[in-house]
Amino acid sequence: MKQILVLHTGGTIAMKENPSTGSVSPDAKNPLTDAPIPLPENVHLITENIFNLPSPHITPEHMLKIKKRIQEAYQNGIDSVVITHGTDTLEETAYFLDLTIGNWLPIVLTGAMRSSNELGSDGLYNFVSAIRVAASPDAKDQGVLVVMNDEIHAARYVTKTHTTNVATFRTPSIGPIGMINKNNIIFLQKVLHSQYTDISSASGFIPILKAYAGMRGELLEGLAHLSLDGLVIEALGAGNLPPENIAPLQKLLDAQIPIVLVSRCFNGIAEAVYDYRGGGSELQKMGVIFSPNINSQKVRIKLLIANNLQLKKDELVDFMQQ
Ligand code: ASP
Questions:
Q1: 55: CA distance to ligand 1 center in Å?
Q2: Is the CB of 123 under 6 A from ligand 1?
């Protein structure tokens, strides 16, 4: 018998629509609790309502609590984990777990775009799909997975791309790593082994700043007055900034604040290509770290983890560039 731990954390999958106003809000009782769930053979669910939160209320401390609960359950012999979660920050929790729990067991996150009593509600379907994936022998060694709308995505690369469409989760550049069919779960790609590092705290003040045409230096100057533990910048194109930002950026670097740069483009990666004032080459020479393959919200999670590992400068650069 496969023992699957189900952790419900809240989100639309646990919400209901008010038929007279159309607004959606949390329900005291998780609607999945009484739902008829067609289980694959030889699967037993152990269900816990660890939180009942909309995912904009989820913090790194909540992620840490989920991580600790999974580690404890793993010591007690659990085979896989399914987590239901609001879709807004699902990718951040998924990536946090990807970095802090090794490839010991399949961990699958899922959610819903339509609440439990809405027409075409996708919650129960996604939940059953996630259980099927978590029970699949092929789900092991693929890192943390996100299952929605008949697709399997790697936590490291997946992102929410649409405010309401049920096909919201996408993986830019490489696509889903697997698919869910009526009778079969099929993995199409093997995920490269992710980094694994354990932490016992998740504190730090690490904002994300998005660059734009005409961005002047005031925002970076203002940030120098706050006690930052790090900064993530979504830069332009291949990794460039408007030139007025160079002087205040240097001040932050002089104050030993780690600054990690990604591109604001949906596809592709940031690299030191352009050699002009504010170009990627100058930023890299100044000591800005270029993150090769994850989006800004995930870089923020990674930098937060690095902050709690108290890495030395060169270790931090290596960690962020992997
Ligand atoms: N705002 C909701 C949340 O993230 C959306 C969802 O669950 O999909 O909790």
A1: 5
A2: no
* Residues 255, 234: Cα–Cα separation, whole Å: 21
Q: Are 290 and 299 in contact (CB under 8 A)?
A: no
Give φ, ψ of 110 to 5 degrees.
Answer: -150, 170
264/168 Cα distance (integer angstroms): 19
Asked if the model's pLDDT at residue 270 lies above 90, the reply is yes
Q: Which residues, other chains included, contact 203 with Cβ-Cβ below 8 Å and sequence gap of 6+?
A: 60, 304, 307, 308
Residue from 12, 32, 53, 160 whose mutation best tests the ligand 1 pocket (most atoms within 8 A of CB):
12
For residue 12, the CA-to-ligand 1 centroid distance in Å is: 5
pLDDT digits (tens, 9 = 90+) for 33-79: 888 999 999 999 999 999 999 999 999 999 999 999 999 999 999 99
Give the residue-averaged pLDDT of 197-209.
Answer: 96
